[in-house]
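[stage:ingest] chain + small molecule (2-acetamido-2-deoxy-beta-D-glucopyranose)
[stage:ingest] validated
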Amino acid sequence: METIHRSTLRLLPISLSALCLTRPTAPESKRIRLPISIPGILNPKPAFLTSRKSYSSAPSPVAKAGWFLGLGEKKNKSLSLPDIVKAGDPVLHEPARDVELGDIGSERIQKIIDDMVKVMRKAPGVGLAAPQIGLPLRIIVLEDTKEYISYAPKDEIKVQQRRPFDLLVIINPKLQKKSNRTAVFFEGCLSVDGFRAVVERYLDVEVSGFDRSGQPIKINASGWQARILQHECDHLEGTIYVDKMLPRTFRTVENLDLPLAEGCPKLGSC
Ligand SMILES: *[C@@H]1O[C@H](CO)[C@@H](O)[C@H](O)[C@H]1NC(C)=O
Ligand SMILES: *[C@@H]1O[C@H](CO)[C@@H](O)[C@H](O)[C@H]1NC(C)=O
Ligand SMILES: *[C@@H]1O[C@H](CO)[C@@H](O)[C@H](O)[C@H]1NC(C)=O
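[stage:predict] done
[stage:export] tokens:
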């Protein structure tokens, strides 16, 4: 699930989409001098933009944007990271399969988990499901940090019940609602970047599954963490948030703060 809110985007002098559209294609001599204050980033190595390894589709604007923002890691490490798969790729629209318990400790699965955590942090996002790197496997990772939360307005953090939590890796998660309480808020997805829509989610959930060492785990979550868990578990069913959104609330990130259309519910807990 995507974490950059309007306030973080305001730190950028121009929009990410504009960057992605203009930068990689601009010829060296005609490269537009973008009003960016971070030194060094106007001289991208073309190879770095094109030789990205992918489990599935083409290089993603999000991955590029993450790199451009200096949110990534050392160049060499980034080169071997998978791209985030975007809406329309069948892997995002089909159910994923269980990881065999005996496989959890394998080098392959451990590497997939490491990659997922890196891709999530680099994006940056607060959650990622394996289908989002092109793998139809039931693995999710999630994490919300003080830093990410500090970018959101204080009143929003409060009503969303957003609290930091440590990295969670859950294999073969099973989600159950623990109450009928729900909340309606905007959410976004790294696979549908640049957009937001209101989705109604349960406020209290329990998720059981296995951690990366193969031990059974059970998590009680509420508020924003419960929303992230529902969003990521939905990915494993081939469901993305646009399948569940209130359609008339769909908008670009830039328009996030504009008023809701008539007939849309008020944001908050129900
Ligand atoms: C990057 O990887 C290449 C080989 O893959 C290696 O030769 C080079 O030293 C590495 N560079 C850094 C900065 O680690
Ligand atoms: C949720 O509501 C349904 C009926 O609407 C009820 O049967 C169920 O017990 C409720 N669940 C909880 C956890 O309160
Ligand atoms: C989750 O909450 C239930 C009560 O709703 C409690 O019995 C259980 O011990 C909690 N589990 C964890 C792992 O905190």
